[in-house]
Amino acid sequence: MKKRPNFTTYEQFKKKLLAKPGVRKEYDDLQPEFEIVKAIVEARIKKKISQEELAKRMKTGQAVISRLETATASPSLSQIRKLADALDLKVHLHFSSR
């Protein structure tokens, strides 16, 4: 009789990894980038436009939007302003205590 593999859920895997101090620190350090990506994706979806349409409005390529939404590129303040303009939104910056 074959032994079934012991599968781990994503949440279990994440919890185990984040228990390691080095991994936790890196994860926490990346939170601002993840929040920017989440804000970009949510705003675009709320406006019901595609990456291609957003790129046209920003006068850039769809690949640029894809890189921003997958965090393989960090947006400059200039790009964030262009994103906001293209989505007819305002940019707000918020600092808080750690």
From TrEMBL:
Residues 40-94 form the HTH cro/C1-type domain. GO terms for molecular function: DNA binding. It comes from Candidatus Woykebacteria bacterium RBG_13_40_15. The lineage of its organism: Bacteria, Candidatus Woykeibacteriota. Pfam families: HTH_3. Gene3D superfamilies: lambda repressor-like DNA-binding domains. This is HTH cro/C1-type domain-containing protein.
